[in-house]
Amino acid sequence: MLATLLSATLLGLEGRVIRVEVDVAPGLPGVTIVGLPDAALQEARERVRGALRNAGFHHPPRRIAVNLAPADLRKTGASLDLAIAIGILLGSEQIRPGTLRPAFVGELSLGGEVRHVPGILPMVAALARRGVRRVVVPAEGVDEARLERGVDVLAVGTIADAVEAIRSTRSRRVFVAAQRVELGIATAGSAAGRAVEPDPPPRVPDLADVRGQLEARRALEIALAGGHGLILIGPPGSGKTLLARTIPGLLPPLDDGQALAATVVASASGGPPIRELVRRAPFRAPHHTISYAAMVGGGPRMSPGEVTLADHGVLFLDELAEFGRDVLEALREPLEEGRVAIARVGRATTFPARFQLVAAMNPCPCGLAGVDGARCTCGTNIPERYLARISGPLRDRIDLWVLMPRVPPAALVGAAQPERSAVVADRIAAARMRQLARPPGRLNGRVSGRFLRAACRLSAAAERRAVELAEIERLSGRGTERLLRVARTIADLAHAVEVETDHLEEAARFRSAVSGLEQRLAS
Amino acid sequence: MTLGIGRAGPLGPTRFATTVSHAPGRSRPVSGSGIADGEREALAVLVSVDGVGPATLGRLLRNVGGAGDVLEVARRPDGDRLLIESSREPLGDDRLSPPSLTHRAAGTLVDAARSADAIVAGIHAAGLEILTIHDADYPPRLRWIDLPPHVLFVRGDRGALSHARAVAVVGTRRPTEYGRRIAARLATALSRTDATVVSGLAVGIDGAAHAAVIVHRDLAPEDGPTVAVLGGGHGRLFPRAHGRLADRIVDTGGALVSEFAPTTAPSRGTFPRRNRIISGLSEATIVVEARVRSGALITAAWALQQGRACYLVPGRIDDPSSSGCLEFLREAGGEARIVASLELLLEDLGLATGPDGDASSDGLAPLVELGETAEMVGARLLRGLTTVDELVASTGLAVASVLAALTMLESRGLVVGAYGRFRPAGRLAGSEPARPNVR
């Protein structure tokens, strides 16, 4: 007999609805799965057989054909296990379908437990778009599934629970309705009645722990306030990494739309089960040995890469010059477009990647160039070449450049108590509000051209100064735009309506070190 | 012994010239009469040949005639053999010296003679002027050295090479912060007295000296320009990172000059050879910082050998960056002199101070018009503070104000920054922090 059920798999960040057809017919015993399954899915045969047997059901010794439609879509992962098992039970008439006809998502263990799979949220969302009203999900994924409106969710711990669910004809009550996601208030509570602990906040250093480096602190504040690309260049021990590690404590929480997007990414990337909307802006700091695919995404399952995991947050690249050249070049498209397109044979997808780039690097391979009292052991020209590893197009997308000297001991011991992260975070949040309230409703770092000129009203004196600075620095069109963008953010931090001369002067401090690099190094 | 220039300096392995040897007749300045364009271009072709230095070229010209004639000979079927023979010189007793032209160089010369037009076209296409020793505006000081280059390729204002006063400022490629500051201050002060500042475009002291003059010239175009003598051809500018610096030198009325053909790559041998031109273009050479065996000391040795003044900035005896200077002073104590202070140096050189009075007296004058914060920041920089942290701590100003003030000072050429440190430049560098009069 033929049984047909709906399930879903994950492709990239999107769920794909899969129709699972199971035919149990007389013939040589065996299970055949057709419809471009991958290795994990082929092994579903064994998982399903074990799960059924150990859960007290019967694995019929008949010819079982499982077809996964649409047939031309390559299916991956174990999220179809549960649907296949239920299909076999229906096809062999061990159970009868009820009236609710839910969709099933989940992996099976040999003992018959239903296990969590990555991407519950996007898969449930895809099923909802298809008109499915009820979904059976693993117990751990219930909070995540309930984030999708308009779908009733049943959490099951074992295959027996699932059978119970579809056999019942009337127990609509076993399904729980979608969370009243009052976006803006993190909702808690789970169907299983477990107390939900919020994820412990990652250990983030406070800005008060960072001594000295006032120029770099200021640059960081401006960069985060305006969503600008930032690079910190300084010798080892100057505090670049520590400063960057304070970023999570400085970023404002995500708004509703961003939080939903971030939750989908977190779900699809297969981390721990999600209890609530992800409100914390992501901060990703991949190591410099990262591969191309890990950075942009891809692989057999079209998994999202670091640029996507950092969507709406910060991508911090420590030791920027040590990253592979192709890895760095791959950042150009996402920095420009806010998304990254991945094409593989027969498949193509686009991931969001609206991250903000913060980078750090040494001034030269030995790290000691420009340190007074230390000797740089690099040969002639080596420091210049080291900086030149950051290609022109990438440089163009970094608005703020800071050359950090080593902090003198006096500043480490004697100076005044530095500001705490909370104080700076408030200023950043206020500046961001000002920017978002003004057309085009984006952070300055992502505004360009016409909108930028409209947003950057200059006072008369500032206009003259802007022209002067552009001439002195021999700024290109792009360079001038960068200057204005940063000046606009500085004005926003100062609650100023117009950009004043002082804002421009300060912005010019952070211009591309490379544009004047030769002279800076020379003189 | 071949009469060449060698890579160890004017006196070969003997590192420091303590006696100036001017063998009579050896350096006979060529008269500066006019020269036909064809002959000038022919000379340019000849110096483009790898393996033909000033010495060999001199022999060929003496034995064959003009440069055009040498090319004529090279185009003959047995040209290479004739050229090699022509590179012998009489030794006095009817015998001839061995030829100085190698077979390989002769072959190259023959090839060059056949493609002479292309070589000349390449030089013109690169925007270079050919200045030969026969030209009236060949730099007069250079004419008087041993083995002056027959041809100079010039980009920029050739007049800068023949300025009435010219002083070289050279030093190590890895200076200390102090060295950079002194180089910038020396160069600015020299430019203010309308002297040309000659250097080698290298990173470090050379770059600091060039850059200081450039920022100063932006504001005071009537003051002395800067000239960079390249260690390779114009087309192979080295270091490449100084491309923009080189452009700025030309923009601000200075010049880039090389005795090498545009396509010549810089190599180990070209730099010492170039150094004789740095000292030769200048009436005095100042070494700011040099380690032991620094190329800057070769320039200093050339200066003494050429009968020019040579000054070294003394340093602490335990500072490796100054060890070469101190050793040179010890060896050449009678002739090399020390730089005791900016004013005393200018006095020793007989250079008048600028029109607006003593360089040391106007202190913070350039800052007054720029407003209070700029003045506060500038005063701190003159006192030797370098980082933003120090400036904020000392002035009590907001970080944003200090950063804005630094930009303002920098855009007016009064401050330069490197690796997050800042120091006075331009007129600010030429002035002393409030300090008692040394005299």
Give a description of the structure:
The complex is a heterodimer of chains A (523) and B (439). Chain A contains 22 helices and 18 strands. Chain A is an alpha/beta fold and 523 residues long. In chain A, strand 1 (2-11) and strand 2 form a beta hairpin. The relative contact order of chain A is 0.10. In chain A, the strands form 6 sheets. In chain A, strands 11-14-17-10-18 form a 5-stranded parallel sheet. Chain A has helices at residues 39-42, 44-54, 81-91, 120-129, 142-145, 159-167, 214-226, 240-245, 256-268, 292-296, 306-309, 325-329, 332-337, 382-388, 392-396, 409-414, 421-436, 449-455, 460-472, 477-493, 501-509, 517-522, and strands at 2-11, 14-25, 30-34, 63-69, 103-104, 107-108, 114-115, 134-138, 152-156, 230-233, 283-284, 297-298, 303-304, 314-318, 339-344, 347-352, 356-361, 400-403. Chain B has 19 helices and 11 strands. A 9-stranded mixed sheet of chain B has the order 1-2-6-5-4-3-7-8-9, sandwiched between helices. In chain B, helix 4 (79-86) crosses helix 5 (103-114). Chain B is an alpha/beta fold and 439 residues long. The radius of gyration of chain B is 23 Å and the shape is elongated. Chain B has helices at 37-47, 54-64, 67-74, 79-86, 103-114, 116-125, 140-143, 177-192, 205-219, 243-251, 270-281, 295-305, 320-331, 342-349, 365-368, 372-382, 388-395, 399-411, 426-430, and strands spanning 129-132, 151-156, 166-170, 196-199, 226-229, 255-258, 284-287, 309-312, 337-338, 415-418, 421-424. Chains A and B meet through helix 7, helix 19, helix 21 and helix 22 of A and helix 8, helix 9, helix 10, helix 17 and helix 18 of B.
